[in-house]
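Hi all, long-time lurker, first post. I run a small reading group and we've been trying to get comfortable going from sequence to structure in the token notation. Rather than ask abstract questions, I figured I'd post a concrete chain and ask someone more experienced to write out its structure so we can walk through it together at our next meeting. Sequence below, copied exactly:
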Amino acid sequence: MNAQSNMYELKAERRTDFKRSALRGLRQQGRIPAVVYGSSMDSIPVHVDSKEIGKLARRGRTETFHLKIEGMNPIQTLIKEMEQKNGAWIHVDFQQVSDNKPIRVRVPIEYQGTPAGTKKGGIIQSQESGLEIEGLPSDLPSVFEVDISHLNVGDKLLAHEVVLPDDIQLISNKDELLVSIIVPRGVDTGDGAVDAADEQPS
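-- Answer (accepted) --
Happy to help. Here is the structure in token form:
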């Protein structure tokens, strides 16, 4: 079965009016202003259906699809950036991709499990919700599912400790702090842990 023939297709219309009032009017009609760009093409301002964008976002930011603009061959793209305001999408950037060229994307992390340290009074402090990686479009995961149930009081999870799929390169700083288990002031864990508040400089 040819994966290309089954690729999701999103229809887009060109934008010609860039006034703020025109952009507001598009959004009121259920359309989202967007732009598509790539190394082998000039940037093209377009607008797309907001409901269709919602469907794509739920499928994952690394999902590739065909962007169909009238008068052009379908462009294989993915969602590069989405701008949100008051819970609604207001702008989208699409990036043209090629099956044989690596691209950089930011993939969300889903933390799973209850850290052991929380049972001793510790609390989860999440610093990052995603990792920047590089790989071929077909190799990109839609999400990283990371088990943090082993983390105890005082433990930290760094970017390089996340297991990546084969052929995927970590672009985020390898020592970037993702999650830590800290102790609120006044909580006695029974193992000599230092209160998080006491670790802060005065």
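A couple of things your group might point at:
The first helix runs from residue 20 to 28.
Residues 1-5, 196-202 have pLDDT under 50 and may be disordered.
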